Amino acid sequence: MDRTASGWINGFIGVLIFSGSLPATRAAVADFDPVFLTVARAAIAGTLALVLLVLFREKRPKGADLVSLAVVALGVVVGFPLLTALALKHVTSAHSIVFIGLLPLATATFGVLRGGERPRPAFWLFSCLGSALVAGFALMQGGSTSPVGDLLMLAAIVVCGLGYAEGARLSRTLGGWQVISWALVLSLPVMAALAFLTMPQSFADAARPAWLGLAYVSVFSMLVGFIFWYRGLAQGGIAAVGQLQLLQPFFGLVLAATLLGEAVSWSMVAVTAAVILCVAGARRFAR
After folding, report:
1. Where are the alpha helices (DSSP H) in 116-247?
2. How far apart are CA 192 and CA 183, in angstroms?
3. Which InterPro entries match (predicted)?
4. Contact partners, residue 229, CB within 8 Å, separation at least 6
5. Residue 120: left if φ>0, alpha if ψ -120 to 50, beta else—which one?
6. pLDDT value at position 220?
7. Integer CA distances (angstroms), 221 to 19, 184, 286, in order
8. pLDDT for res 19
9. Nearest CA to 103 among 26, 11, 191, 182?
10. What pLDDT shows up at residue 154?
11. Residue ranges, the chain, pLDDT below 50
12. How is the chain split into domains, by residue range?
């Protein structure tokens, strides 16, 4: 299979997996403290990643890669999960998901700054148009419900875009699943210690949805999704494949409506169609 096509397929699978992250986080923070949720999911995923690295006898990363791995860890292991968990204390998952529409633009920007990519001007036109459509959809859904929640989500988008671009750049030499695994292992000692310190005295009040949410964000959002995502970005291009994230809000909204019973406007069908056209346009002019 063509490397670029493989990149788009892997990226699409990653987006599908990530689409369940915010609804799962919303379910988890109903019974778990956001800080505990953040460090617990990283500790669980880090333990699984360590097992994988040992089983496959992967070589340790070079010293020059440690700074990049630290950036990945701060962006996607700690920053994005913590900021979104805190935001979801103030806003619904349906509202927070629309901010994900700004993530492709952030990822593409950092792809230029860190990955050395140079998309054509038409690419930026489609990327900005797609982001504008998602932002407009957010206003149609009712606008801002909490300034604090919105600011936290915007901060999450910035650090996540940096973590995506840095991880994709490193994946070209280190490998996709190896990058997220080493980033998780690098943060494991601190995350495990914090998980122990922030652990609630009793889990008796934690309902089944909260446990399922914790399991999903620990295994799929924190590890499995990145295996496909970083491979896709490295194969198909950070800026180009990153545009698939424009579809993530709408996949997530479907999950929010289905699993959490949150209200979702049918107007998202029309917006989704327009966003798909923007993704196609961005793909054509990415290089």
Report:
1. 121-140, 147-174, 176-198, 208-216, 225-236, 238-242
2. 14
3. AA-Vitamin_Transporters (IPR050638), EamA_dom (IPR000620), EmrE-like (IPR037185)
4. 10, 11, 14, 15, 17, 18, 164, 176
5. beta
6. 96
7. 9, 12, 27
8. 87
9. 11
10. 87
11. none
12. 3-284
